[in-house]
Amino acid sequence: MSKKILVTGGAGFIGSHTVVELAAAGYEILLIDNFSNSEHWILDRIAKVCGNRIPFKHLDLRDANAISACVSSYRPDSVIHFAALKSVGESVQQPLAYYENNLTGTLNLLQAMSNAGCNQLVFSSSATVYGVPERCPITEDAPLDAVNPYGRTKLMMENVIRDVVTAQPDFQAAILRYFNPAGAHPSGEIGELPLGVPNNLVPFVAQVAAGLRPQVRIFGNDYPTPDGTGVRDYIHVCDVAKAHVAALAALDDSGVRELTVNLGTGRGYSVLEIVHAFQTAAGLPIPYAFVERRPGDVAECYADPTLSHRALSWHAEHGLERICEDAWRWQRGLR
Ligand code: NAD
Ligand code: WQD
Asked: Pick the residue with more confidence: 1 or 256?
């Protein structure tokens, strides 16, 4: 009998790609979402890619009774928890909304799991928990210091989850710290749906290539990096999705109680390198201008992926070219 997986935030960017990978791996899935940052039609697209409809429940994790009833009746073997608000800038403007959604939602989910005897969790964390890294590549034992409300919600929830692991002998958790997920499914059916002006670089560049925005504003060209622009570890969203399938297997196979790993490629690219790679993928000129640094940005941030390779028997397969090609195919489909 196949394992039953509850996926929170499964209509979102990374969740939708993970649902596709889970279905391909033969898991039974229940997807939940409140569509605060996604659209209902994504479910049709997921069905198209999977070849069948994935069971879905419209549910807000802030509703403790609703999530408790859902977990108790579905009785999943594992939960993959993506649902969260994720904009750093918005979290500075609306900290209470972020603490309420990300903390209350996760606490309600953990309580519901505990009530129902569901003991396996994969949690979406972020490289943001490293704050301003002392050195790159970043290993998992680097100092943790979130520097904005969004990052603090991730760090707090990591600690809550570790406390649950300590308190409940049967509970297992995989905490995955994503670096910069980007790209889209190669089918062009699912991808990132930024509401309003994209905060993240790749969707912004894609919208410039599509003629929806006049130019890329490059935040700073005076960083201590080879070309002066910020360096990040961009990882294809399908690689991130596959890491979740690998994490479920790793928890089952190793029996380990808790594992915390980076999800990155280990290779950093500058903003200018991204713009040039996208230009090649799209075959179109991408105008850009250098502007002031964005407050809170660091010069460089890239992962040491060694532990993830060992613990998950997984590694990122796709490079920057594929990220840009797939992001461009998705963007063209949106027009
Ligand atoms: P996303 O916004 O595309 O997906 C999140 C989904 O969760 C959305 O569909 C949203 O509607 C849903 N959701 C939010 N709050 C909910 C609630 N209270 N109840 C039910 N559903 C709710 O984001 P994403 O890029 O797919 O990110 C997924 C996870 O990964 C998030 O936890 C995010 O913080 C984390 N993460 C993302 C990135 C990134 O760059 N995309 C990097 C590091 C970590
Ligand atoms: C990448 C680089 C910018 C936009 C953020 C969150 C992090 C995680 C991933 C959730 C930087 C530059 C960007 C633009 C630019 N999310 N840039 N012009 O800041 O590394 O990480 O998303 O957990 O928590 O902080 O990603 O895509 O915003 O920026 O020059 O219009 O592109 O300065 O160097 P970041 P990003």
From this structure: 256
